[in-house]
Hints:
With 119 residues, the chain is mainly beta. The protein has one domain. 0% of the residues lie in helices and 39% in strands. The strands form three sheets. A four-stranded antiparallel β-sheet has the order 1-2-3-4, with no helix packed on it. Strands 7-8-9 form a three-stranded antiparallel β-sheet, with no helix packed on it. Strand 5 and strand 6 form a beta hairpin. The radius of gyration is 16 Å and the shape is elongated. The N terminus and C terminus are likely disordered. It comes from Sus scrofa. Keywords: Repeat, WD repeat. This is Protein phosphatase 2 regulatory subunit Balpha. One of its GO terms (molecular function) is protein phosphatase regulator activity.
Amino acid sequence: MSFFFFSFSFGYTADIISTVEFNHSGELLATGDKGGRVVIFQQEQENKIQSHSRGEYNVYSTFQSHEPEFDYLKSLEIEEKINKIRWLPQKNAAQFLLSTNGWSRLTDSLPKTRVQQGE
């Protein structure tokens, strides 16, 4: 499956998606962007979607994974852009994923309840 993302010259480069990863079952989809944010989408249940549809994903959770940093020893700015996301194998009801900006790696846990609209 190919994904094509278009960016427009509005000055919001932080909102450009930099990585996409499905979990092992395909029920969850994680995206990371250049601003260090992770957005998790959950697939709608089959009984809720129409039979001619291939599946619909809705926002499940959103969080800031990485912040810009500065390495004082190397005099180097470390951008918050997420380079890669990986889902960890599920051992119980909890879902975990790893995200990296090329410099640091973070393990994030998903909330057990879905994000309500308007939050």
